[in-house]
Amino acid sequence: MRHRIFPLLLALLLVLAIFSPIAGAVSPDDWNSETPENLQEGHLYSQTAVMIDAQSGEILFDKDSKVRMYPASTTKIMVLLLALESGKSMDEIVTIPREANDVPSDSSFVPVLPGEEMTWQDLLMGFMINSGNDAGNAIAVLVSGSIDAFVTRMNQRADELGCKGTHFANAHGYHDENHYSTAYDMALIAQEAMRNEEFRRIVSTTEYTMAATSRRAELKLTTHNILANPASEYYYEGCIGIKTGVHSKAGNCFVGAATRNGVTLITVTMNASNSNRRFLDNIRLFDYGFTCYDLYSLSELFDLSGQDVHTTEISNAAKDDPQKGLLGLRLTQVSDPDFARYIPKEGEARIKALADFAARTSVNLREGLAAPITEGEIVGTVSYVGAEGDEVTAMLAAQRSMEAQPETMTLYDILPFLEPIRPFLESGAFVYVILAVIVIVIALIFLRVRHAAKRHRRRQEIYDLKRREYHRQQVEKRRREAALRARREGNARVPARRSPSAPAKSPRPGNNSTSAARRPAQNAKRPQNRRPGGRNIRYD
């Protein structure tokens, strides 16, 4: 018996395990509003959903956001974006084309009638608030000339925005098997649209009155977005749009946006089983989204920003200053003490948010700020301008005291006549002037050296010419002198010819009887007479 009971118990446990809920799975009923940071996919009624930061595009929550779905009237977000990008004036009077009637009979209507005249703004407001498909067709024709051309532009714009799972087949969102999108793609389209100021104004309008026309009386409109209606139990503070959508094939869809303290979140939920559940899903997403951020005051943001924002360098700080002249700044006397902004808790989005704050912050230090400085001394002002144009100002105070360097004699103390041109001397222009003068002086020196070298070469050439000429003259002179001596010597050796008629000269008395013709030879080699005793006698 015992052996039979044991298998039965095992079988029973197996059946219970198969048919019992999966361990750890959650349902929408398990969601706790006291702990919104614990949101899970199972807490949402919608089949797919996504939430992004409107500024950075960072995905904060995802539930099958890239699964293809039918967008229903959330399609109108793209239609309104293209209508505003067409450049038409809000006050322009337009005539409703006949194509406005080309919609299924069970469509939602504004209504607008062919031939009716109204302002462009009235047409857009009726289109978004009353979700009129007839107005969608009218907008398509007025912008692109035909519905087909406008739908082509819708698909082109979706591609430009990076929508990979989207294809539009009409200008209003009525069900078509070839008209589809994804939660993520709709978030991308909404992100781009919310950058347009007119778009934000239209989708955040909860009540509007269309002016009377020749075909009807004035028409009062009320938004279907109960998250933006203060009288609704689903009202969500800070909700600023965007668009509902519903169809039997698409289910209940909603693209929403909410802003708090400088942070805007965009949510998309698709195919919820009823209208209220889609709004509950978006409330849960918003609550979760804002827990992804920390709230900071202006002073706290200032302290978190880069060093170049909340510090400054004092040039005349004492040499033994512990921070080398770097002075920390803090805010005081903030113009709006309640000012606060959400900043992502972590990740790249936090870095980008702090960089954006620094870029929107202007620091104006007191002119001529120099040490000594006392702690708490006002040294300047700071101004922050938010994305919506809101400005907050504050005073800048020194975080610590700072001593100055001992005063030393300056150039202006020695040469006081330079004081009037001190701004010029201390400016960058003076440096350029000095550099220009140096370049000119170097150029002049180069030219002078070059000219001196050229002149030296010319003088050397002249000297060489004169030296060669002198040498030539000396050679010529020596040659002439040599020739002259040679002639003289030649004349001395050769006797002069006597004319045949000239009488012969008789020899002088006392000389040998040597002829006159031999006298030169005798003179050249004088006879040496000997003295008695054998010694020669030399006649000079």
TrEMBL record:
Q: Which Pfam families match?
A: Peptidase_S11 (PF00768)
Q: Which residues form the Peptidase S11 D-alanyl-D-alanine carboxypeptidase A N-terminal domain?
A: 43-273
Q: Which stretches does UniProt call biased (Low complexity)?
A: 492-509
Locate the compositionally biased regions of type Basic and acidic residues. 474-491
Q: Does the keyword Protease apply?
A: yes
Alphabetized UniProt keyword annotations:
Carboxypeptidase, Cell shape, Cell wall biogenesis/degradation, Hydrolase, Membrane, Peptidoglycan synthesis, Protease, Signal, Transmembrane, Transmembrane helix
Residue stretches spanning the membrane:
429-449
Signal peptide annotation: 1-25
Q: Which domain of life is it from?
A: Bacteria
Please tell me whether the keyword Transferase is annotated for this protein: no
Active site per database record: 73 (acyl-ester intermediate), 76 (proton acceptor), 131
Positions of substrate binding: 243
Annotated region Disordered: the residues are 474-540
In the record, what terms sit under GO molecular function?
serine-type D-Ala-D-Ala carboxypeptidase activity
Any one GO biological process: peptidoglycan biosynthetic process
Q: Which Gene3D superfamilies match?
A: DD-peptidase/beta-lactamase superfamily (3.40.710.10)
PANTHER family per UniProt: D-ALANYL-D-ALANINE CARBOXYPEPTIDASE, D-ALANYL-D-ALANINE CARBOXYPEPTIDASE DACB
- Which family is annotated? Belongs to the peptidase S11 family.
Name of the protein in question: D-alanyl-D-alanine carboxypeptidase
Species annotation: Candidatus Pullichristensenella excrementigallinarum
